[in-house]
Amino acid sequence: MKKAELISDSLELHTLLSFITFVKSKNVKITKAEFVISNTDIDLCPKDGKPEYAFIGRSNVGKSSLINMITDRNKLAKTSGRPGKTQLINHFVINDDWYIVDLPGYGYAKASKTSRAQWEKFISEYLTKREELLNVFVLIDSRLEPQKIDMEFMNWCGEKQIPFSMVFTKVDKLSSTALQKNMAKYKKEMLKTWAELPPVFSSSATSKFGKEQILNYIEKINQSLLGD
User: Fold this and answer.
1) Tally of structural domains, the chain
2) Residue 32: what are its φ and ψ, rounded to 5°?
3) Model-level pTM greater than 0.70?
4) Beta-sheet strands, E only, within the chain
5) How far is the CA of 222 from the CAs of 79, 135, 136, in angstroms?
6) pLDDT, tens digit, for every residue of 60-76?
7) Domain range spanning residue 202?
8) How far is CA 147 from CA 34, 167, 227, in A?
């Protein structure tokens, strides 16, 4: 299946599940999660054609912790108190059926201009050219009001027709009222330039909130491909 077809399928599914906080489906159990390869060249990425789901966000948004949470593996993705640690495209095969792809975080101010340019180049190439990529989970710190860098990245994804979902992280760090307030601000900001919103999830690596919803969403996309 070509990338245009994959994008079309995924965009159609996004329309059906627009602005959601949960997805009703059977529980998805991850029985196997293994590291496969790290690189900065999409030509070196796995060539078995399995669906890929990328995770990206601002540095220190809790990306590695979220990946470990949804896979029930404490050390699958490397966590660090130092932002900007992830500097490669990291592939993890899940249940031998699909991949989680851990991408470098954007917006790390202390990285050199050369490093940032290199990251931007291979991240852009992966996101725009990788035919197996079906969805990008854009992680957003739920404690913050809409950030310019997050909005710019999501608008760029839209311009490039890259299917993506929004995942608000660290929801255990603020009250339900504050969470809904910040999510509403993002919704308002998005609708200034978007006709409709992408799927939206809330998550907590600490309480494991959002795990089933994210995995069920991935399963729905995988199952839609099998139905073609």
Assistant:
1) 1
2) -150, 130
3) yes
4) 33-39, 52-57, 89-94, 98-102, 133-141, 164-169, 200-202
5) 28, 11, 14
6) 899 999 999 999 998 89
7) 3-226
8) 33, 14, 38
